[in-house]
Amino acid sequence: MYKLFSTHLLNKLFFFIKNQINSLFTILFFFLLSSCISPKESSVSITDISNKKLNVLFIIADDLNCDIGVYGNKVVKTPNIDRLIENGTLFLNAHCQYPLCGPSRASFMTGMYSNQTKMTKNNIFLRNTVPDVITIGQRFRQQGYQSVRIGKIFHYDNPSTIGTSGIDDIYTWDQTINPYGRDKLEEYKINTLSPRRYGGTLSWMASGGVDEEQTDGIGASEAIKKLENFSNTGENFFLAVGFFRPHTPFVAPKKYFDLYSKDDIVIPESSPDYLKTIPIPAAKSVRSKKNQINLEEDLAKEIKQAYYATISFVDAQVGRIINKLKQTGLDKNTIVVFTSDHGYHMGEHGHWQKQTLFNNATKVPLIINVPGKDYISKISNSPVELIDIFPTLMDLTNIISPSHVVGESLKPIIENKSSDVRKSALTRWRNGYSIRTERFRLTKWDINGDFQYELYDHKFDEEELNNLALDFSYSLIRDSLIKTINRRIIQADMKPEGIGRQIENVKPAPRITNVTYGDIHNENGKRTYLKPITEKNE
């Protein structure tokens, strides 16, 4: 028995020593392994996984038409916007869905037509018409991105609500920044066709100081800070930077005005006889601004010079942001989108500003730059719509779009796998609809149940001055396009799947008279003191 007991103890001791040796070898193995691998390589964090996703830098200018170098304008200087087409796709035939700030922005931020957002006026909060909608920034938030707004993305009364959140949608963003600069402090100095009115009428000023003092310069500086922060934290982001220019008032530092000679600026001629060839609503749309009709030529050139100056000013701010993107290395992992909310007339058809169904008001710049060797510089003449931006960004970042999004992904065009994703681009203005194909524009006006049309052939008439709707030689084309526009209108009016509630006839938020800093008003709101331009506050 003693012998058996001793053998049992020896066996237990043997297995104990063996297990201890195995444990020591295991510890030694992992120690040696960890010493050969850096801490960054040896751990896999949520940040490491998320960083494999593409970021998005979304830049939008306010009231910017296609008077840009890369779109063929020989006068305007926009070197920074132009270079976005390096590894980018330039869309030559992109159009807004409603040529007015608020409705257009609500449209592309939700990927739906204005009939579906139920918004055709400014100063309406998005959630008052479509409470359950998911916006672009909101969808990125749902996927773990930081969604940040700087400046104007949803509607602002520009310039009166600069520095505030305007008619913003708080559910779209994690963070918001509202820049406020020298252009607001010196608003009283601005030249304007209507005293103390700036946003809805032509107004302009060559400002003193430097870029970084202006509202948009401050916005660019804030974007640069955000990019620096994202490069340090490794967070994925949807960074939306909304510039307030070149929207009126056309304010920029004087050096941008000095880039242009009025001798190089041409004001289009417009005959009153032309108005008789188009439907009455079309004629009214280009004669709606009474104090901007038949401007004296030298004044018109001064105003157009100011518009061009603000475009170059915005271009410089874009350059500052893109330079920072490249400096941080984030350009290798960031999609860049540059666009505007709608086009803008500069005297074409005898009209200034927007709110028409001509190419000048519907057409917008659109450049989408995607990093990676699979994406090369490309120019597309395919008709596309601003509501296509939402599904395109979802497609490029491998995120499922909300079911209510009715736009088309432009990824097949960007990847050179398809020449188009749609055959026409649809725009609405009040009781009129217009489609733009690669060659033609057809516009349909509903005048108390009587339909009237405009037809333009861009092969021979890029200015859209020769209405061919009653030209017999174009009758087959007209009839075919009428069928197309009727089908497009029906589609744009359908309730999207998953949209939730749609609330009709929502009234805009009440507006009050703009208060220019420095003016004095009594207790009833009547202005009693007008700050003179001679006063200085430098």
Description:
By secondary structure, the chain is of the alpha/beta class. The chain has a domain at 53-422: 3-Layer(aba) Sandwich (Alkaline Phosphatase, subunit A). Helix content is 32%, strand content 19%. It contains 17 helices and 20 strands. Strands 1, 2, 3, 4, 7, 9, 12, 13 and 14 form a 9-stranded mixed beta sheet that branches. Helix 10 (215-233) packs parallel to helix 13 (297-328). The radius of gyration is 29 Å and the shape is globular. The model is unreliable at 1-18 and 20-50 (pLDDT under 50).
| Overall CATH architecture of the domain at 53-422 | 3-Layer(aba) Sandwich
Enumerate the spans where pLDDT stays under 50 for 5 or more consecutive residues. Answer: 1-18, 20-50
CATH first level of the domain at 53-422? Alpha Beta
Largest sheet features: 9 strands, mixed
Number of separate helices: 17
Structural class: alpha/beta
How far apart, in Å, are the first and last alpha carbons?
107 Å
Please outline what is shown here.
The chain has helices at 2-36, 39-42, 46-50, 79-82, 101-110, 114-117, 126-129, 136-142, 182-185, 215-233, 254-257, 280-285, 297-328, 359-362, 389-396, 411-414, 475-493, and strands at 55-62, 88-95, 146-151, 175-177, 191-192, 203-207, 237-246, 250-253, 334-340, 345-346, 352-353, 363-369, 378-380, 384-385, 425-429, 432-436, 440-447, 450-457, 520-521, 527-529.
